[in-house]
Specification:
Blueprint lengths: L2 H23 L3 H18 L4 H8 L8 H14 L1 H5 L2 E2 L2 E2 H8 L12 H10 L2 H12 L6 H13 L3 H8 L15 H11 L4 E4 L2 E4 L2 H6 L6 H13 L3 H13 L6 H14 L2 H12 L2 H4 L2 H16 L8 H13 L5 H5 L20 H14 L3 H17 L12 H10 L6 H13 L3 E4 L6 E4 L5 H13 L3 H13 L6 H13 L3 H13 L6 H7 L5 H27 L10 H26 L2
Antiparallel strand pairs: 1-2, 3-4, 5-6
Protein name: Pentatricopeptide repeat protein
Family: Belongs to the PPR family. P subfamily.
Organism: Aspergillus ruber (strain CBS 135680)
């Protein structure tokens, strides 16, 4: 390096965004051209993590480096320093913001933009950057097949179906057999676009918004696309539309795969169609490859949980129900994790020889949930919770990830909520959620990862609140509401219905009336669950009387406030002691009612 170049290197390493920027802007174009490549090579070889700031400053100079050389520098960093580059940051700069700045549209060459520069730019840019690329392509520039598909994927990520379709139509203009309309890459991106599809009413009846446009472009749907069409049809809430799509698939001899059956099982369970689920299970039993699919296995376990475990027949022994769930689990998954949780009875013997694959989180959760549907004794709940908690804190590779959501914790709480002896453990569970370390390292030999431990959300607090109300512990319930306020938990419809249910059971008419008033003021409505709670009232007429009294007091307060604003001060009137005492009594009574309303409002 020349002496002046060495001076520039020193500035880059010490104050790139300050002194180097000033010195660089003061150089002539010939000097910049002579120095840039030497500085870039020196930094890549000896100080690669100083390279991003160097590129950031020089790319914004009045004389910019060649776009291809900038891209080469980025690719060198990504290849040789992948982790350091992805997580690089300095002040407000990140690796993504540096790429966006250096490869911004104003820096693109007029004649031809390198294809890899588009790929880098689109991977890091925001929605407006994607729109710039689309506009550039609409002006007649060639983006290339892979980059067009990357652009489509970017718009899908931002939920913009219209622009995704607009970009996708340029695929048809390419004279490249790799991007024929029936090629795997093109069809895969059609599937991505279809994830945004929905049904709309038109002059010719109901129809999909996106599918007809893809068909007009010459796309012929394969099974993967039809699976998404089937999924979108069931998502409309109109089962007949889904069945029509299913008939179409059967008439056109589409082979059903695991994803098809997962969609069908999900819909049948959601609609509570037990007969349909039984039919699908019989079909799947004759398809061993599909039955061994982890997604289908989870759907089968969920169907069993929804129809059998949650709605147990009183004539069936609970242990038989749990053993049947274990049999479903063992067909595919290793039972060792459940034994570590102390969940498998010593007398249980699997009826089938399974594949011993690593269990999914959904499978583990469903077995745990089923166990507590069948076994609700406090001693068992406490023993298994303490074991679960210990495994989570140890970073167990199967159970620590369950602590990333509140579902498993809520199962323990739900099991205990109608047991008066379980209230202390309920409080401990919520405290454990609050006091857990923010992140837990998972001990997994295959990969190093951490999970963010969940904090109790509205549903968890609602279960705890409902437990105290059910067990007639109103003071504890009030403490729970104070904790909810402390942790900024917003009331939703379920929380309000739980509060109202508790007051109705306790025949606490004033608090019940104020809860209903406050709920309505916050935009929620009295629904069927609210009305169901009001049936517990011994004297429902008194509730409406109290609400009318609250309305009258508030109305009087508003009117008096208006009068005080409009009326001039009244002259002092001399009253007898009896009149003065009566007036003070009325004022004290009215102030007491106002304070009562304000106090009850403050609870929420």
């Amino acid at each position: 390096l020349l002496d002046d170049a060495r001076n520039l290197i020193g500035m880059i390493q010490k104050d790139c965004l300050g002194s180097f920027k000033t010195a660089w802007e003061g150089l002539e174009i010939q000097v910049k051209a002579a120095h840039w490549q030497r500085l870039a090579l020196w930094l890549l070889q000896r100080s690669p993590l100083a390279m991003p700031e160097f590129l950031y400053i020089t790319a914004q100079s009045s004389h910019k480096p060649d776009c291809r050389m900038v891209v080469d520098c980025f690719q060198f960093l990504a290849t040789h320093y992948p982790e350091e580059w992805v997580y690089w940051s300095k002040g407000s700069l990140t690796h993504a913001s540096v790429i966006q700045t250096c490869l911004d549209r104003k820096n693109w060459p007029i004649a031809k933009v390198p294809q890899n520069s588009f790929r880098l730019y689109m991977a890091c840019t925001d929605y407006s950057g994607l729109c710039n690329v689309l506009q550039w392509m609409k002006e007649g520039h060639n983006l290339g097949g892979w980059n067009i598909l990357n652009l489509v994927r970017g718009f899908v990520k931002h939920q913009d179906a219209e622009r995704a379709l607009e970009a996708f139509q340029y695929i048809a203009t390419l004279n490249d057999e790799r991007f024929n309309m029936d090629s795997s890459g093109v069809m895969r991106h059609c599937c991505k676009i279809l994830t945004l599809d929905s049904v709309a009413d038109g002059p010719n009846g109901r129809n999909f918004r996106i599918l007809p446009k893809l068909l007009e472009m010459g796309i012929r749907p394969d099974r993967d696309m039809m699976n998404l069409v089937l999924l979108n049809a069931f998502r409309t809430g109109d089962p007949q539309l889904g069945l029509d799509v299913l008939d179409f698939m059967q008439n056109r001899s589409y082979d059903f795969d695991a994803y098809t059956y997962s969609i069908l099982l999900t819909d049948a369970v959601a609609r509570g169609d037990r007969e349909r689920v039984s039919t699908l299970i019989k079909e799947i039993e004759g398809l061993p490859e599909i039955r061994r699919n982890s997604h289908v296995a989870s759907k089968l376990m969920h169907a069993y949980y929804a129809f059998v475990a949650k709605n147990m027949d009183a004539e069936i022994e609970p242990s038989r129900i749990f053993y049947a769930m274990l049999d479903l689990y063992v067909e595919l998954y290793d039972i060792t994790p459940l034994k570590e949780l102390l969940l498998v009875p010593s007398e249980y013997t699997p009826t089938v020889k399974g594949l011993n694959e690593q269990p999914t989180l959904i499978a583990l959760f469903l077995v745990i949930a089923t166990y507590f549907r069948c076994q609700r004794r406090y001693q068992h709940v406490e023993r298994i919770y303490l074991r679960f908690r210990g495994l989570v804190l140890q970073g167990h590779k199967h159970f620590a990830p369950l602590a990333a959501t509140d579902h498993t914790y809520n199962v323990f709480l739900t099991t205990l909520r109608d047991n008066p002896h379980g209230m202390r453990l309920c409080v401990r569970i919520v405290q454990d959620m609050l006091q857990s370390p923010p992140t837990i390292t998972v001990k997994d030999e295959s990969e190093k990862r951490t999970i963010n431990h969940v904090k109790p959300a509205a549903q968890t607090w609602t279960i705890l609140l409902g437990a105290f109300l059910y067990n007639k512990q109103p003071y504890a319930a009030e403490k729970v509401k104070e904790m909810m306020a402390k942790h900024n938990i917003e009331y939703n419809q379920v929380v309000w219905n739980t509060v109202i249910n508790g007051y109705a059971n306790a025949q606490n008419i004033p608090d019940l009336a104020m809860a209903i008033r406050t709920m309505e003021e916050q935009g929620f409505v009295v629904d069927e669950y609210t009305m169901r709670s009001l049936r517990y009232l011994h004297n429902p007429e008194r509730l409406w009387e109290v609400m009318d009294e609250f309305d009258q007091v508030e109305s009087m307060s508003r009117e008096e406030a208006k009068v005080r604003e409009q009326k001039p001060p009244e002259p002092r009137v001399t009253r007898s002691p009896e009149e003065e005492a009566a007036r003070e009594h009325e004022e004290l009574l009215e102030q007491g009612l106002r304070r009562l309303i304000e106090k009850k409002k403050a609870k929420y």
